[in-house]
Write a structure and sequence with these properties.
Structural class: mainly alpha
Largest sheet: none
Shape: elongated
Radius of gyration: 13 Å
Order of helices and strands: HHHH
Oligomer: single chain
Length: 71
């Protein structure tokens, strides 16, 4: 999985909470409500964190693409 490899690559620089939510949502295919129950957050907060995590991944991907194109 590309997502799993990307999360592993980001490692230390990526907030653990975002990583957990994205892994559970995309790799384990859990619902936002299920993730919320596990993490003791409401579904809406899990959705917000998922969206923010995806935004961070997108920005990181854009930076990598820019760096590669500059070489």
């Amino acid at each position: 999985h590309i997502l799993q490899e990307t999360l592993n690559m980001l490692g230390y620089s990526f907030c653990k909470r975002y990583e957990i939510i994205l892994r559970k949502y995309f790799l384990e295919e859990k619902t936002l409500a299920d993730i919320g129950t596990e993490l003791r957050l409401n579904r809406e907060r899990v959705r917000q964190l998922k969206e923010k995590g995806l935004g961070l991944l997108r920005r990181h991907a854009q930076r990598l693409k820019s760096t590669i194109n500059d070489c």
